[in-house]
Every structure is written in C-alpha cells, then in structure tokens.
Amino acid sequence: MTTAPVIGPEERLPLGAAEADPRTATRRRYLMCEPRYFTVSYSINPWMDPSAPVSTDVALRQWHELKATYERLGHVVETIEPAAGLPDMVFAANSGTVIGGRVLGSRFRAVERAAEADHYRRWFVERGYRDVVMPESINEAEGDFAWTGEVLLAGTGFRTDPGAHAEAQEVLGVPVVSLRLVDPRYYHLDTALMVLTEADPTTGRRAQIAYYRDAFSLGSQRVLRHLFPDAVIASDVDAACLGLNGVSDGYNVVLPREANRLATELTARGYNPVMVDISELRKSGGGPKCCTMELRD
Q1: Could you tell me which of 98, 120, 129, 236 has the fewest CB atoms within 10 Å of its CB?
Q2: Coil, strand, or helix at residue 160?
C-alpha cells in the first residue's frame, strides 16, 4: 500500500504472484469541484448529521490532496467552480455520466441538490460538448452508474429511478444492467461497488469489480455472481468506511485510508492501493469516487 506513487499512464506494471495478466494503469480525465462551501446543514442519507461538527477547512485540505494524488498518478483533473448554497456540489460524480463523449446529466431526488444539475450542464455546454441530454427520470449519474467497458451497471432502490436505466441506454447507446440496492447506508451504487478493471474487447480483457454483497437484493447478487465470478468481495468493515467508494485506473486504486482489508485483497490481485484521508467529506456520505466524475471522451 502506498500514499501516492508516480505511475506512468499506459505503463505495463508488475503483478502479484497470483495474476496471469499484468494490470495496466491508463491515463484518465476527471472533473472535480472544490468543497469551498462544504457543510452538513441537512440530512438526505444516513451518514449526514447536521448536529455534528464539520470543518470546511479540513474538507478542503483533504479534497486538494485527493486532486493532487490523481495528478501525481498521471491523470488530468478538470474543475468546475463551486456555487454558494450548494454544499454537496463537491460530489461531482452525481451530476453527469460521460461515455464516448455523450453526456447524460442528472436530476436529483432531493430538492436540496436540484440546482447542482444545471451548473454541471452549463460546464459541459461551455466546453463544446454537443451531445448533452438532461434526464426526465430521477438520475443521480455516476452515483448510480458504473461503466465496465462493456455494460453500464445501474443502481436503483434509493435515489435513481428504474426508468432512468432505460433512458441511459437510449442516450448513451450502451447496454444497461439494473441492480437493486437494499441497505439505506449504501444509497448509491458507488458506495457499494467499484470497477477495478474495464473490459477491453481488443485484448479480450474482462472487467473486474469489487462489491459488498449485502448492499444488494438477492436477485442482484445472483446477477453480479454471474457477470463477475472473480469479483473482489468486500467485508462489512470495508463497506462501513465507504471503502468501495474508490477510483481505479486499472492498476492504482485510490481508497479511503480505513479500507485496510480491501487494500490487502487488492494487493493480492495485482493492484496498487493508494490510500487517502477523506474522513471529513464522509460526514456527508462521500468518498473519493463521489468527488470524481470521469470524462470518457
């Protein structure tokens, strides 16, 4: 486990002994939003307690270190200007899904977050994205959508409506697999599942994920076992620190620093865990992935 190694993008990297194929770090482009106005002034998930102390300064320091970690790993980070009165705008993953340059925006369930969607829409339009569609159904974007390189895994149960799954398939032009979340602590798909390696049809590489079984309905657990028989299964302890709210480039996996068991398992699978402190932002139910929208142009 490391804190922030410098790994060249596209570099073929060494394996754990159990791995047949090397893990590959690929350069990614991310969109992030500084938590300049971060606080916990309302509660829309079980992690949020407006009566508990929150430090905006600590959240800022942790966010800047997360951003710097991505940059040290060779990734490109774009930023959007935060807006006063929108303390959760820092969670960029919830405001857009980008695949092949097509953008599906968001429509939030909670009224407190509704205005965030148009700020992100304008960011895409002002930067020349031509295919920007705002959804009709409740859709919390990469909070509930995870691209595996072949299919879009789509969560529902607490935030995103099932109808948004069909809408995503039409707008983004990729097949969608619906998964039902059943534990309110894991209210978004990205709190219970992360993509470690994307599938690559040109090389025959299969996608690999990590997930927490008990966050999903029994039927969805069967679907995940069928699609990903070699998935990394997270423990209760890993899930409880939002350890699955991580970001992988195919080799380096940025995780909350408390997710030690998951980090050990990932190391055994040939990945390189990169641990970060995101504890202040976790008070609003967020981790590294919540802060990070991937721009797949």
Answers
A1: 236
A2: coil
pLDDT digits (tens, 9 = 90+) for 5-47: 444 433 333 333 334 468 999 999 999 999 999 999 999 999 9
Structure token pair of residue 63:
């966010």
Task: State the total domains in the chain.
Answer: 1
Active-site positions?
188, 290
The number of angstroms, rounded, from the C-alpha of 141 to the middle of its chain's C-alpha atoms is: 10
Q: Among residues 84, 75, 70, 72, which one has the least CA distance to residue 35?
A: 84
What residue numbers bound the domain in which 151 lies? 29-294
Residue 23, domain member (yes or no): no
Identify the CATH number of the domain in which residue 282 sits: 3.75.10.10
Residue 31 DSSP one-character state: E
Residue 106: how many other CB atoms lie within 10 Å: 29
Tell me phi and psi for residue 166, to 5 degrees.
-65, -40
Count CA atoms closer than 13 A to 175's CA, side-chain side.
Answer: 5
Inside any domain, residue 24: no
> How many angstroms separate the Cα of 32 from the Cα of each of 89, 120, 288, 291?
9, 11, 10, 6
Fill in the amino acid letter for 85.
G
pTM over 0.85: yes
- Tell me if 280 is assigned to some domain: yes
CA distance 107 to 105: 7
What backbone phi and psi angles, to 5 degrees, belong to 218? Answer: -60, -40
Nearest-angstrom CA–CA distance, 281 and 55: 9
CB 93 within 8 A of CB 116: no
| 15 lies in some domain | no
Three-state DSSP class for 56? helix
